[in-house]
Design brief:
heterodimer, A: ABC transporter involved in vitamin B12 uptake, BtuC, B: ABC transporter involved in vitamin B12 uptake, BtuC, two-stranded antiparallel ribbon, two-stranded antiparallel sheet
Chain lengths: 328, 358
């Protein structure tokens, strides 16, 4: 087998795994969009916030330490204990639920019935607010996150591919774990929205707010729940990306990676988010591999957007999106 | 008492359709112009120019441009940073290629080039609407920044990848470079802002502006009553990008002098200008000024209060700035979706009846 082809296969495999991670972030968007019609730009910052909170709790950091120290002239930074990973994840989830409640109570409730674009801008404001709060709470330096996920090259794949092709594929263990977790999460979310009472209520709200209200579904509860689920997805995404590349500001930019995935797959479709994520993941890695060296590299920043843009011109609602019908 | 139409008789159609129909408004406008052109240049110094006035003037131009697209034509764009970069790099290439030509011409040409790029990226708006368009404009943002980072021709193969504004003049007065006097740079930007504001104001209350607003309010209905969506949307993209390009050129050549594209014209810049028009007021020229002033002032005030008076570390002040900006955006969207411009309008209505409101 020619070398180029083998390299390309490795690139495609890595692209598929990156795609699953994109899909994971995109899922958070789709959930909120389906249930409340809000395009939540803050999803990426929520992942950052979740990851920072997780690290902070695990290391026993004092929240707002910098602010307290600056105001009162004290020098506190740590409580002096370490929390085990699992407990910290549960505590972080509690924080995310609290955040979901606060967002619903103080922001979204007041904006019900506004135009979608106003809601979108409100979430951009929310993203700024959360980012500032996260930095104030836990400090803005780069942190490492280790919850015990395996990392490094997968030797088994390396060896077996070496035996077949004469060239060992470099596949990170973390990517494999992330793929499995993402797949499980997707399955769980689909099962949740199809088979549980709350999931059905959520879909009812997505379908028609007023009809859902009239059969006795509490909109407030559903929205808090949806934001909590999105917070949970953000937490998982934050753990994956945070373990991979450290917990830092750039983590919040994964939202920007997820946007073209959404455009490609359609804002309203869970399968769309997954297929879109895979297409973008493979597409951008292959493009960088094949064309990148010719034009100076780092094409990953924009390739996904341009692909989505060209795609949208031919199919404005995305691959799996509901057909947009406009009436005067 | 003094702020009303009564007694101000119009005797011609020109009088009747002027920009400021109320006498008080008109005088206020002349006073502002007189102060801006006649007094400030004599008392300005480097600190005021660089910390407040230049960024305000330049951002106001960008905000007017974006307001035309978002506020008047309803096409949300997140690509402002990228279009500003086009203006900056076009200006740089022109400045280095034609050193003898006046800066005025360079800046206007830079705006023209940006307008062409804007039309190109505006083409998908004919098919894509709403968020899909907002996200699609991000393609412009990322692609343009990448292009200026990676293609050496744009930065004249300089080793650092930065672009530096060489010294250029207008009628013998140095405008760019480290030796430019504060008053000259201020006046140069002010002239552009004044002209842009007048042009934008008159465009938006004429046929073109009405077509934009028809498209914004309901594009299908507008099409049915005879507005050509292709022309209306593309003119909005062109005019908006023209202004944004001018502001990008000024931002680079006059204000900063040296630019690293990813840092200066990144997506944060797009959001900053978008926030200006949200806080200031969508669909209002005055709002663009108010929003730009507000968001230029806020970090400076916070720095003076937080870092200099209270002695907090600067990173905390920077984070607080984020929190406050985010909270303000949300508050404005909830409490006053039409922004500072609406507050101003309400104040004027009150003033009209004052002191006898009944």
């Amino acid at each position: 087998m020619p070398d180029q082809l083998v390299f390309a296969m490795e690139v495609i495999l890595n692209g598929l795994m990156a795609g699953v991670l994109y899909a994971l972030v995109a899922l958070g968007f789709v959930l909120i969009y389906k249930a409340s019609g809000i395009f939540n730009y803050a999803q990426g910052v929520m992942a950052l916030f979740a990851a920072m909170t997780l690290v902070g709790i695990m290391n026993g950091q004092v929240p707002f330490a910098h602010l307290i120290n600056a105001t009162f002239g004290t020098h506190i930074h740590y409580f002096g204990w370490n929390v085990p990973a699992l407990l910290a994840i549960i505590l972080t989830m509690a924080v995310m639920v609290l955040l979901a409640w606060a967002v619903q109570r103080f922001v979204m409730r007041h904006l019900v019935g506004q135009e979608p674009i106003i809601l979108f801008m409100a979430t951009i404001g929310l993203a700024y607010l959360l980012e500032g709060v996260a930095d104030l709470m836990w400090g803005s330096e780069i942190k490492t996150l280790d919850v015990g996920l395996p990392q490094g090259i997968n030797l088994w794949i390396d060896e077996s591919t070496f035996n077949i092709f004469g060239y060992g594929f470099f596949i990170d263990n973390l990517d494999i774990v992330a793929t499995v977790i993402a797949a499980l999460l997707v399955a769980a979310l689909v099962a949740f929205s199809q088979y549980t009472k709350q999931g059905r209520a959520m879909r009812a709200v997505a379908d028609d707010h007023q009809a859902a209200l009239s059969v006795g579904i509490s909109l407030n509860f559903i929205w808090v729940m949806v934001w909590s689920v999105a917070g949970f997805v953000a937490l998982v995404a934050g753990i994956m990306w945070g373990t991979k590349s450290g917990v830092q500001f750039s983590l919040s930019l994964i939202a920007l990676k997820a946007l073209p995935v959404l455009m490609l797959g359609g804002f309203t479709s869970i399968p769309g988010a997954i297929v879109g994520g895979l297409i973008i993941g493979v597409g951008e890695k292959l493009f960088e591999f094949a064309i990148g060296p010719l034009v100076g590299g780092a094409t990953e920043n924009w390739f996904a957007y341009v692909l989505a843009l060209i795609f949208l011109v031919f199919r404005p609602q995305g691959l799996f999106g509901e057909k947009i019908i406009e009436r005067v | 008492m003094f702020y009303r139409e009564a007694g101000d008789f119009k005797v011609s159609y020109v009088d009747d359709s002027q920009t400021f129909p109320i006498k008080f408004d008109r005088y206020r406008y002349y006073v502002v112009l007189a102060v801006a052109f006649g007094i400030i240049p004599f008392i300005i110094n480097d600190y005021w120019a660089n910390a407040l006035l230049l960024p305000f003037l330049i951002y106001a131009i960008a905000a007017i441009g974006l307001n035309i697209l978002v506020g008047y034509c309803g096409q949300v764009s997140l690509g402002t940073g990228g279009f500003m970069a086009v203006g900056a790099y076009a200006c740089y290439k022109l400045m280095t290629a034609f050193p003898d030509v006046s800066m005025f011409i360079h800046v206007i040409l830079a705006g023209g080039i940006t307008a062409l790029v804007g039309v190109l990226f505006g083409l998908p708006s004919l098919r894509i609407k709403g968020f899909y368009l907002a996200v699609a404009t991000l393609a412009a943002q990322f692609f343009l920044v990448w292009l200026f980072n990676r293609v050496p021709w744009f930065y004249n193969y300089s080793a650092s990848g930065q672009i530096n504004a060489p010294e250029r003049d207008v009628f013998g007065i140095i405008i760019t470079g480290p030796n430019a006097p504060a008053w000259a740079t201020y006046l140069f930007c002010l002239i552009f802002l004044a002209v842009c504001a007048v042009v934008a104001r008159n465009l938006t209350r004429g046929t073109t502006g009405r077509k934009w607003m028809a498209i914004r309010d309901m594009d299908i209905a507008a099409e049915i009553i005879g507005v050509n969506p292709l022309r209306a949307k593309l003119t909005a993209f062109a005019v908006s990008s023209f202004f944004v390009g001018i502001s990008g050129a000024l931002f680079f050549a006059v204000y900063l002098g040296a630019v690293e594209v990813g840092e200066v014209f990144g997506i944060q810049k797009s959001f900053l200008v978008l926030f200006m028009i949200i806080i200031g007021g969508l669909g209002s020229i005055f709002g663009s000024f108010a929003g730009a002033a507000f968001l230029v002032l806020l970090p400076v005030v916070l720095k003076v209060v937080g870092a200099d008076m209270l002695g907090w570390p600067t990173d905390i002040v920077a984070h607080l700035n984020l929190v406050i900006v985010g909270a303000l955006i949300i508050m404005f969207l909830i409490l006053e979706p039409h922004g500072l411009a609406q507050l101003w309008r309400v104040a004027k209505e009150k003033l009209r009846l004052w002191p006898f409101p009944h």
